[in-house]
Design a protein that fits this description.
2 domains; nine-stranded parallel β-sheet; alpha/beta; binds uridine-diphosphate-N-acetylglucosamine; 21% helix; UDP N-Acetylglucosamine Acyltransferase, domain 1; seven-stranded mixed β-sheet; Spore Coat Polysaccharide Biosynthesis Protein SpsA, Chain A; binds magnesium ion; 459 residues
């Protein structure tokens, strides 16, 4: 039977003190709700239903490109049990293993959920849940076990007596696997007879116990996987755990980091063998880095494609490509559409946008190159700029192979410089330069001999 997953994400998340819904806060560029969806998918769920409520439209929009996810709205938020019942009514009941998890538990691994599903199937349980022993149990529902160790009930933190608060240290993680058929038949038995006057999904344990249906709690080895995010400090804590998990995997795969706590790599980023990531490096989105690169320090790349043996120091790159042996920085800004050919060199205080820099070409100092195609073996002198914008439209600059552009040259687009042409320093180039020509645009230098001495004599 295919596995269903229901992710509860209708709550407001008051403790985040935020204008946006809690589940849209991000860890390494991926929202909390997306982390939960990925965990459910990794666990093998084929049908993933997200219960939305607070900020429903924003949450739906964020999930719009996940084709296996359906959103169902819980208009009145009467508790976690009510949220599951809302889905049950909307889809006409569940069949097959049905995993319920919360949208604020981003660290859970797919394999941990899979173990829960296997346990439920193996023992024909009506419900198996994951329990944990966190350092501080406050806020969590507490697990009550019989003398023989069987799961008896979950008592919510707010419903505990002072004694129970002290004695019950095993907690409910909020991740469950139900038998879908039995859940559909019995979910109507939940009541609101508790401190918060809500329908608690946790009360299904008591419902099943009364009916003699088997229920169990599986104690997780690693409670940090089950950390709930209810506040900004828990968000940063979860972020640190995810960061160290990703970095540990990369180091296992042969990536060097001298200070992994100062390197942030998103979940969809790939990094090749023998690449070194230096401190204060952030690799986000769909960035891919090849082998033998040195990236950082102080480098942020989003959706970039970096091939092998590339060195980037103090670079900000967005949707940029760098081919084998290229290098940039310190302090270069590679904006969208920048493409560095093999062994291209981009130096300090250089900004590139929507431009191709051919193999072995150099833009070493203080330049802006936009909407430009540059051939191979070009040298752009310091302080040279393509004037690509006339106030209304953007225009193209084409630079051939082996062109030498002297320092402080303005290339007023649209303009093209032919192969092997030479531009004298400080020229403002407004018309095309033929191949092999020298273009010079500046007034002649005047020399007045003895000027300083004559001036002094007049004083
Ligand atoms: C819940 C559990 C508690 C567990 C803890 C683990 C219940 C009653 N309690 O408590 O046993 O230890 O999580 O983190 O389930 N939600 C809805 N609709 C609602 C109410 C809540 O979708 O009507 C969603 C929230 O958006 C949230 C999740 O359900 O993602 C859990 O709700 P929350 O209020 O955070 O429950 P906790 O008090 O943390
Ligand atoms: Mg919670």
């Amino acid at each position: 039977m295919p596995v269903n997953a229901v992710i509860l994400a209708a709550g407001e998340g008051t403790r985040m003190k935020s204008k946006k819904p809690k589940v849209l806060h991000e860890i390494l560029g991926r929202s909390l709700i997306e982390w939960s969806v990925f965990s459910a998918r990794e666990a093998g769920a084929e049908r993933i239903i997200v219960v939305v409520g607070h900020g429903a439209d924003q949450v739906r929009e964020r999930l719009a490109n996940q084709s296996d996810v359906e959103c169902i709205e819980q208009t009145e938020r009467l508790g976690t049990g009510h949220a599951v019942r809302t889905v049950c009514d909307a889809i006409g009941g569940f069949s097959g293993p049905t995993v319920v998890l919360y949208g604020d538990t981003p660290l859970v691994r797919g394999e941990t959920i899979r173990a829960l599903i296997d346990e439920t199937r193996a023992h024909h349980n009506a419900c198996t849940l994951l329990s944990m022993r966190p350092g501080d149990p406050s806020g969590y529902g507490r697990i009550v076990r019989s003398e023989s160790g069987e799961l008896e009930a979950i008592i919510e933190d707010k419903d505990c007596t002072p004694e129970q608060h002290e004695q019950l240290t095993e907690c409910n993680s909020g991740i469950y696997c139900f038998c879908g058929g039995r859940l559909t038949q019995n979910i109507t038995k939940l009541t609101t007879n508790n401190a918060q006057g809500e329908y608690y999904i946790t009360d299904m344990v008591g419902v099943y116990r009364e009916m003699g249906e088997p229920v169990a709690a599986l104690l997780a080895d690693d409670y940090t996987e089950l950390l709930g995010v209810n506040s900004r400090s828990q968000l940063s804590m979860a972020g640190r755990i995810m960061q160290s998990r990703i970095n540990a995997r990369l180091m296992d795969e042969g990536v060097t980091m001298m200070a992994p706590e100062l390197v942030w790599v998103g979940p969809d980023v790939t990094v090749g063998q023998d690449t070194e990531l230096l401190p204060m490096t952030m690799l986000m989105g769909t960035t891919s880095i090849g082998t033998d690169c040195v990236i950082g320090p102080n480098t942020r790349l989003t959706d970039c494609e970096i091939h092998n043996n590339v060195h980037l120091e103090e670079v900000v790159g967005i949707q940029a490509v760098a081919e084998d042996g290229a290098d940039a920085g310190p302090r270069a800004y590679l904006r969208a559409g920048t493409h560095l050919g093999p062994k291209a060199h981009v130096g300090t205080h250089v900004e590139l946008k929507n431009s191709y820099v051919g193999a072995g070409s150099k833009v070493p100092h203080l330049s802006y190159i936009g909407d430009t195609t540059m051939g191979e073996g070009v040298n752009i002198g310091a302080g040279s700029i393509t004037c690509n914008y006339d106030g209304k439209n953007k225009h193209k600059t084409t630079i051939g192979n082996r062109v030498f552009v002297g320092s402080d040259t303005m290339m007023v687009a649209p303009v093209s410089l032919g192969d092997d042409s030479v531009i004298g320093a400080s020229s403002c180039i407004t018309s095309d330069v033929p191949a092999g020509a020298l273009a010079l645009e500046r007034s002649r230098q005047t020399i007045i001999k003895g000027y300083s001495r004559e001036k002094k004599e007049q004083e």
